[in-house]
Amino acid sequence: MNIVAPAGNMERFYAAVKAGADEIYMGIKGFGARRNAENFTLSEYMEALDYAHERGVRIFLTLNTVMRDKEIEALYENIKALYEQGLDAVIVQDLGLFRFIKDNFPDISIHGSTQMTVANHIEANYLKEIGFSRVVLSRELSFQDIKAVKENTEIELEIFVSGALCISYSGNCYLSSFIGGRSGNRGLCAQPCRKEYTTSKEEKGYFLSPKDQLMGQKEIKKLKDIGIESVKLEGRMKSPYYVFETVNYYRSLIKDMDRSERTSHLFNRGYSKGYFYGDKDGIMNSKYSSDFGKFLGSIEGKEIKISENLILGDGVSYVSKNYEKLGGENVSKIRIKNKSENQKSAQAGDRIIIDKVPQGAKYVYKNYSKSLNDEISREIKQAKKTIDVEGIFYGKVGEKATLELRCKNNRGENISVVKNSEISLEEASKRVIPPEEIKTKISETGETTFSIKDLRINFDGKAFIPLSLIKKMRRDSTEDLRKKLVSSYQRKATGDIKKINYSGSANKDIEFSVIVSNSSQRDAAVRYGIKKIYEKGLDVAKESELEKIDLESRLAWNLYQLLENKNSAVTVNWNMNITNTYALKELGKIPGADTVIISPELSLERIKEIGETGIRKGLMIYGKLKGMFIEIPIFDEDKIVLKNEQGDEFEVVKNSMGNSELYLEKPMNLIPKLKNLMDAGIDELVLSFTDESEEETEKILNSLKTKTGEYNPYNFQRGVY
Fold it and tell me: For residue range 576-621, what is the model confidence (pLDDT) as tens digits?
């Protein structure tokens, strides 16, 4: 089972390789779901590819965001350069980008990002059928769900086992986008889930902030036993030490070595097993959302009974009873109660004296472990990732000495070199070098990336072989093998860029449709004369809950509902986040796909850029925007209002499945300026009703005639970054 490690810059990349990662996912500057990370320039990426390939490590390019047509096509030269250098795979979310890459680079592996929200085997099999080689399953799946998917698909599966969790399903979050135009789906999430909120009950807390995930030996064994191909670690913006230690930990677990984790000492906002056991509890941490470190103890006057060992050079932070950070310090003095002299260290259970307690401080956390960081620093310096090599050495009087070395690249291809001495060997007049010494000297590969595991010596025991000759043949052979290994990954892209042919959007005979959540809204729509009425559905189709997905619905809320739908004409809802012509065209290949409601993240200007593809385009013009779809019930109440520090209000509603749905309290409304949409190439204008009463529904429908109401465009006017 492979480890897929994160790398947000070169330092983290080297740490991941040295720790033993098999695969590393990395972004280039300006693209990917972590655009705020440092990421890599093109030249750095090329350098990293060669470095990784010399050590048998695979590199995955993260392009796991939604894109516009021009952005997709602008990627061509960068992808081409990396493809020719030997890029191993690309991770994508956008079906349009998938199709563009597949058409232009047909033999490259493409992985479906977790943001695709693949939660069942039907969706996984569809991705395999169209050309994906791997899918990263939704993080909300239980082990039983994962096992069932694995039993019913042949596509490679990758599972997140550690790191930060997005509370919105599989990272499909619109809250940052709808609040301030920073789209998480385009890599610029402002992390509103990590902010403090106040409920309508006047309770304060970090109600949308989950703990990080950290699976252990038991969970890894379960995944290994069912044949999961790769486990994934989050952390492109974490420290190199975090990356190294976490990769190292999972490498040990995969090798069935029982060891304790130390990741929680390097970054800690609370940890859980995530959704692995189907638990609804223990996932959230409403007290704080940032890295507090390990809990050290509660302050009693000027004393604290510590629960962790403490040494000089450790870092501590002071926290109020409401979990507000009040400052911190590096430990420069340790006074243990009832001891007259200062100490260099204290053990868990000791009572230590604090000279200056910040006003209001209640708790102390240890946020830096000097001993652990020093130890990891030493391990990084000593660690080395190598490739196993086999070889044969021939040495006979009257013939040239020959050294043959062989290895495999990470695609399983055999790479070999043969090196001969410049002159034939003569018979030794004095001491003959023993075969074991020849083997030892050839195996001294030193600073190379090779480790000779199997070397056969075919020596007649008579020839004179100088040590200098053996060393030279070893140096020359390993250098030639290195060059040949790196070049084995490289290939040439063929042909010119393949793009779709655009046809401009024409004016349409626009029809109106509605999405209703109850019968009274439906009654109001019928009275108004709306012919196309859709029903509210579920954003996700989990493997264990497929029977609860309505396949008679003409509105598909997820890929499963589209693929298995019983209707001949199906509309795809906006939560599938379609933003470009390529994606529209790809969805149009699915039997029954008739209309796509395009993403509300697009501005009017961007909507007009989307060309005609044969599939109809819809646009939501009214409705409370859903910022998050959450697997678990955040609150016990069926409905509660949250307010952020800026005064924005959100409704958190528990649906029939026990999921939480978070809506912006103020609905989007484009109706007062409908005339602006007449030349945007839209076929269908959609009104979405959630908790509106029958009278409110009627009033909004009537405004279609008067074009009145409060204009509230959100991203339709400003767009997103």
Answer: 999 999 999 999 999 999 999 999 999 999 999 998 888 999 999 9
d(CA 444, CA 628): 57
Are 677 and 685 in contact by the 8 Å Cβ rule? The answer is yes
φ, ψ of residue 294 to 5 degrees: the values are -90, 140
Tokens 């990002």, residue?
113
Provide DSSP, 403-439. Answer: EEEEEE-TTS-EEEEEEEEEEEBPBPSSPPPPHHHHH
Q: Return the closest-CA partner of residue 611 out of 32, 64, 63, 72.
A: 72
Residue 336's φ and ψ, nearest 5 degrees, are: -95, 135
pLDDT in tens, 320-379: 999 999 999 999 999 999 998 999 999 999 999 998 999 999 999 999 999 999 999 999
d(CA 509, CA 721): 32
pLDDT > 70? residue 37: no
Query: What average pLDDT does the segment 43-48 reach?
Result: 97
- CA angle at 574 for the pair 570 and 579, rounded to the nearest 5°: 110
Q: What's the CA dihedral at 453, 458, 463, 468 to 10 degrees? A: -20
Which of 401, 518, 498 is closest to 457 using CA atoms? 401
In three-state secondary structure terms, 114 is: helix
Burial of 592 (0-12, 13-18, 19+ CB in 10 A): middle
> Given a cut of 60, is residue 32 above it in pLDDT?
no
